[in-house]
Specification:
It comes from Glossina brevipalpis. The protein is mainly beta. The chain has seven helices and 30 strands. Strands 10-11-12-15-14-13 form a six-stranded antiparallel beta barrel. A six-stranded antiparallel β-barrel has the order 2-3-4-9-8-7. A six-stranded antiparallel barrel has the order 24-25-26-29-28-27.
């Protein structure tokens, strides 16, 4: 960008850099019919933005690839008064939830345009770069506003990469109605000073969602005019007159904050399992449920029969472990609560499973688990077909995000089959799709909440086993394998595992060049929602 010299630009008459930029958020999302949209808003709470309009992305689906329909996140940028293509991560925050005043969306140019966006996390505020702007607490008449010093904060026309303030004048309401007969009540009309003498119009200086600030007070939100007509005034929503709706909207957004993770009584059915090298340096782990004294149900497990690793130029056995009766991660595993394993069988695959195909696996333990009514109990498989629907109360049992070292129950919702099929056309018949309840209060999704192998419990019934994905796609629902649909296979193979050595199961001898934890990934899929590597030393 070529900077204009002082003899060409008179900032006080046209545009000038603004101290109000610390209150501004610029944000973006994608619409199926309009492509990428960029808007401006005002930070009125540490996680709420006031603007003119935004799609509620929780209910919007967009084409992704191979006809897959996905739910996308928008992003917002804070603390940057200049437009940049590559925004640093520390200035980015996601958003999905939005509330609009009107029912006719997107609103017409002459209709009320005011909306709230909820950011996916609370911002760290500071007085210089990121600050909340207070809502007005005093009513000002149009006459008062006409006497006020008013500016609009938006992308500049001359300084087009920067957020600048441009002087604005408030027009008489009767005059505005003559020019815009369909003008709604509670509107403010503005324009640039003396537009007849200017080479530019408000179309060049005012952006959709820009704040109108008069005498330092947040006064209006600039509406979108489509197409923009510089010969007519620009409409703003009067923030003071919509303050009750704004306050109620902030409360409504807060009402969508669910407590996703909580303690569970289901831990007595759970194990966490994995494997480590013979020198016990590294471990990768997942979760599963107890089927009987010697068999664990999960989504995928490598058969470790004959699996070897190389440590200090010496071939050593690779063996798995299972921990029961202890619903939290420990660096030292008590022998009384651990059992080794080497044999496993998976449904229809020997190597890495495909993300949208059935994933069910069984692990055979080297010795029986000693059952205890309080700490180690076999799970009951469903014996009757029942309808899985989006009205059921469901939880995933596993390691959470806030409680990453403790087995908890995490809220989940069933995604309707038609919606899941629309989003994932290649998913196998009979798959159950789940997702996180809408609008969590953090940057979380099923990828960092639901681990593979975790059971989904709906209305108290073991319903499905969460599948592995790599890469994990938070935009898509998470597939689960129905326990009832695979009931016969699970029961038959569990009995075989309990009573036989499974010597007939094919396995490949595996050699790892060193004891690096990352090398162990070759034995087990590892994705954002999958098994985690941990150093026990």
């Amino acid at each position: 960008m070529t900077e204009a010299g002082p003899d060409i630009v008179k900032p006080k008459e046209v545009e000038q850099f603004s101290t109000y930029s610390k209150h501004i958020i610029w944000f973006s999302w994608t619409r199926y019919d309009a492509g990428r949209i960029i808007g401006i808003g005002i930070l009125i709470k540490d996680n709420v933005v006031l603007t003119n309009y935004a799609d509620n992305l929780n209910i919007n689906f967009l084409p992704f690839s191979n006809s897959v329909m996905v739910k996308l996140k928008g992003f917002a940028v804070y603390g940057l008064p200049r437009f940049v293509k590559n925004v640093p991560q520390h200035s980015l925050v996601d958003w999905m939830k939005a509330i609009n005043y009107g029912q006719n969306l997107p609103p017409k140019s002459s209709e009320t345009q005011i909306a709230l966006i909820k950011l996916s996390r609370r911002l760290n505020l500071n007085v210089k770069e990121v600050a909340v702007m207070r809502l007005p607490d005093k009513k000002l008449s149009i006459t008062d506003l006409q006497k006020s010093n008013c500016v609009v904060i938006a992308w500049g026309n001359l300084f087009y990469e920067d957020l600048v303030e441009t002087k604005a004048v408030v027009l008489d309401t009767d005059k505005c109605k003559r020019m815009i007969p369909e003008l709604y009540s509670n509107a403010i009309c503005i324009d640039i000073p003396d537009p007849s003498r200017s080479k530019t119009t408000h179309c060049d200086h005012f952006s959709n969602g820009s704040p109108l600030i008069c005498n330092g007070i947040l006064t209006g939100v600039v509406s979108r005019q489509n197409p923009c007509n510089g010969s007519k005034p620009r409409i703003c929503a009067n923030v003071y007159k919509f303050r009750n709706w704004i306050t109620a909207g902030i409360r409504a957004l807060g009402a969508y904050i669910p407590k996703l993770e909580e303690s569970t009584s289901y831990t007595k059915h759970m194990v966490w399992w994995g494997w480590r090298t013979s020198d016990k340096k590294y471990v990768t782990y997942s979760v599963g449920v107890i089927l009987n004294e010697k068999v664990i149900l999960t989504s995928y497990a490598a058969n470790l029969t004959d699996a070897m690793t190389v440590i200090d130029n010496e071939a050593k056995e690779l063996q798995g472990f299972t921990v029961f009766g202890i619903p939290k991660l420990l660096s030292e595993i008590p022998l009384s609560n651990s059992v080794y394993w080497k044999e496993a069988v998976c449904y229809k695959f020997d190597e890495n499973p495909k993300p949208f195909e059935p994933q069910i696996a069984l692990i055979k333990l080297s010795k029986e688990i000693e059952f205890d009514d309080n700490t180690a109990v076999a799970v009951q498989l469903p014996t009757e077909k029942y309808s899985v629907n989006d009205e059921m109360t469901c939880v995933v049992i596993g390691f959470g995000k806030n409680y990453s070292d403790k087995i908890v129950q995490i809220k989940a919702i069933i995604v309707r089959k038609d919606i899941c099929r629309r989003q994932i056309p290649d998913i196998y018949d009979g798959a159950i799709c789940i997702d996180v309840p809408v609008d969590p209060d953090e940057d979380i999704n099923h990828c960092n909440l639901y681990g593979d192998g975790a059971p989904l419990i709906c209305n108290g019934i073991l319903t499905c086993i969460v599948s592995w994905q790599k890469p994990c796609l938070y935009q898509l629902p998470r597939p689960c394998a129905s326990v009832y649909d695979f009931h016969n296979w699970i029961k038959l193979r569990a009995e075989e595992l309990k009573s036989s050595s499974l010597s007939r199961i094919h396995s490949t001898k595996i050699y790892l060049t060193n004891c690096s934890a990352y090398q162990l990934k070759s034995l087990l899929p590892n994705g954002e929602g999958g098994h985690v590597l941990k150093n026990l030393t």
